[in-house]
Design a protein that fits this description.
Strand order of the largest sheet: 1-2-5
Helix content: 10-25%
Shape: flat
Largest sheet: 3 strands, antiparallel
Radius of gyration: 13 Å
Distance between the termini: 31 Å
Structural class: alpha+beta
Number of domains: 1
Number of strands: 6
Order of helices and strands: EEEEEEH
Number of helices: 1
Amino acid sequence: MIVQEMYEGDAALTITYSDKGMLIRQDATGDLYEEAIDPTSAGLTYTETDIPIAQTEAEEEEDEELEEIINILLGEDE
């Protein structure tokens, strides 16, 4: 299932991902993403695919670092 989380800070952002660990497809372009972060005002929509996300340990660490950076930028973590 597609999950969307809204973040309000200096910019309103929508984070979209699959709760089943699948890639998501941006409906207008067909591009595939593990997770999409868009300005909420963009109104972009996504569809869950049946393609699983395969991550290495390095990719998981990078995702955690990016999430921490996003939280800092949104003022949710210091």
